[in-house]
Amino acid sequence: MSKHNFVLSSSDHSVAAISESHYCNMPRFIENLHNFESAFEGWDDPDNTKTVHQLISATGAFPVQYETLNLCCGGKSFPVSREVAFYLVQKKLDNLMSKEIDCMVVQCQTCYLMYSDQQKVINEQFNKQYNIPVLLYPQLLGMALGGDPKNDLGLDLNAISLNNLLAKAGINRKI
Fold first, then answer.
1. Best CA proximity match to 147, nearest among 122, 123, 119, 166
2. Which DSSP letter does residue 146 get?
3. Residue 102 forms beta bridges with which residues?
4. H/E run at residue 134
5. Measuring CA to CA, how many Å separate 54 from each of 51, 72, 129, 137, 141?
6. pLDDT digits (tens, 9 = 90+) for 126-174
7. Helix, strand, coil % (nearest 5) of the chain?
């Protein structure tokens, strides 16, 4: 038997600490796996997500609806097939280029790496002109809360310059 330090509470969707003296009974855990489905009832439909857009709106930013919103970034296929991954990234970025956007906000590290870091590679390999800044949601939230772009949020480390976005947001500081 192995110790565990936390458990997902199906009643309030939170992580509740439990004492070190509790042990995980693996056969019972496997037997009760079907109970985990009910822990997520009432959450977003993966094919029609709303929570991230609500969180973005809470920062004062305006989320944009677009056709490839639910399209995967292809990051998990990248080690196996760069062609598939680049196709998926290009499809979304092409769609976004036709919209009036200031940046792309993602919540997933893999999406961040694919949409941010791979833009330059795709620009070179496929003669594209992508220059869409990509933020992780915590960076957007930090901007909304007045965090320092460089010292608090690390925006100077982002692959695509955010200076135009910062200026538009009224943050008069270049990074």
1. 166
2. T
3. none
4. strand 134-136
5. 5, 20, 30, 12, 12
6. 999 999 999 999 999 999 999 999 999 999 999 999 999 999 888 888 8
7. 40, 10, 50
